[in-house]
Amino acid sequence: MSDxxxxxxxxxxxxxxxxxxxxxxxxxxxxxxxxxxxxxxxKMISIEKDGYAYDLFPHGQVPMRGSAFEPIFAELGVAxxxxxxxxxxxxxxxxxLLYRRADRTEYRRVTQGQAMADxxxxxxxxxxxxxxxxxxxxxxxxxxxITDEQLDKLDGISMHEWLAERDVPSAVYNYLGxxxxxxxxxxxxxxxxxxxxxIMRQMMTGGGGGQYKGGFGGLTKVMAREFEKxxxxxxxxxxxxxxxxxxxxVTGIATPKGTFTAPVVVSSAGIQPTILKLxxxxxxxxxxxxxxxxxxxxxxxxxxxxxxxxxxMDTAMxxxxxxxxxxxxxxxxxxxxxxxxEEVILFMVNHNFYDENAAPPGKQVLVSGTVCSSNPEAKEIxxxxxxxxxxxxTHFPEIWEACERREYNGPKEISDxxxxxxxxGQGGECVGLAQIVGQCGSMKPDSNAPINGxxxxxxxxxxxxxxxxxxxxxxxxVARMVQQYLxxxxxxx
Length: 493
Ligand SMILES: Cc1cc2nc3c(=O)[nH]c(=O)nc-3n(C[C@H](O)[C@H](O)[C@H](O)COP(=O)(O)OP(=O)(O)OC[C@H]3O[C@@H](n4cnc5c(N)ncnc54)[C@H](O)[C@@H]3O)c2cc1C
Fold this sequence. Notes:
The protein contains 17 helices and 17 strands. By secondary structure, it is α/β, with parallel strands linked by helices. It folds into 3 domains: 8-45 and 63-84 and 214-296 and 432-492, FAD/NAD(P)-binding domain, CATH 3.50.50; 116-206, Orthogonal Bundle (Guanine Nucleotide Dissociation Inhibitor, domain 1); 300-417, no CATH class. The protein starts with 7 loop residues before the first strand and ends with a helix.
């Protein structure tokens, strides 16, 4: 180690921590980025094994045009390496949608281009009457054209409440119920209308659902490379045990590889693990600790990866849902009580569509996911896997028959790879804190923790929007705060 003392220490190399570290290093600070895993990226990692190379978790960027990674790459001077693998106006068929209305027995199937770009395939899928089409267009237009000021007023209203005030066809309501599960891992009746409408607006105006050449993990590789190229110190395979604090001010971190000092520590280990485990509770007042303990974790996604002996899936995504299969709070509680739904939503991604090198020549790899609890010990996971496999056999027999091998993932694997479980039921969150009423926008936890020099970057604090985009936005904001703090501190001396 060249130096055990830094301007800033960043814990965690997911999109939140990595954005902060790489921007600060580029701006001339001396940073240490420390990661517990031997692979960088947090949830935004790519797996390279046996000739396969695919993203483990994130599969869709929203927005495709104008994501938070774009300005970061520009500032790093590597804008040419920012390579979305799907342009918002890509003419190909991208998504295959399967939908079953509650009063039907069969799923209706349509294939279309970019997410939400053209309403006609949706009208066909939903089988809308003319007056329902007009109502659907009205509500979609309202979401696409909503202003930031109007969105700010919706932090305290759930998406269900927002829809209840409008003339919305049942099929549109059910689609948004599915969308809340699939894009936010939340129930429609709790998710903040400001978050879900923002994501809908971004999908409709900036494109949604695409990936990058080299996957999301390709973004990680470039940012980490630039961090080191600009002189940053990277330590992997080392879990931070403690954030050291003296008299209400950060002094550094303790790890199995030694103690490192810095006036600033940025943690992307999750706000609850950071405050309740990495810091000693004695440094916070009881009100703040109770606030942190009371924050609600988001739901998780459990997934099955199918390795196929030949290419079978023809579009980038298959999406399967029914009026009865998406989860609101009541259905989620029923599932937790052992009543696993007969059918589940499926969100399937064909890695090969975005990257021809995702699988060895002649093979295909795809992933199928459904929403579940973030509890690493959740009991429903195996039953969900059985439902998912059964749906695959029934509705996509060509995939099932071509399958050579399957891999199963759930909240336990997500927690092991990323954040510790420090309160009951938490740890395997898909995004981070639940993007629900009371925790979004003006009510989102502040990145600036009540300890001098301690900041929270990533999905849990300071930003809004979908997963990786939100984390990179938060990381960008934290980089600004850290510079301001250090400038102020140097003036006070
Ligand atoms: C199944 C699944 C599907 C998803 N799909 C999408 C999608 O389609 N689109 C999208 O935009 N987002 C998606 N996401 C969400 C997205 O991946 C997350 O929102 C994002 O990665 C969070 O970034 P982060 O930096 O806050 O945290 P993380 O990515 O969780 O990174 C935190 C890092 O901190 C490290 N760390 C934790 N504790 C310590 C410690 N004590 N010492 C050292 N290091 C530590 C972890 O190892 C990890 O590397 C998905 C997530 C999952 C799980």
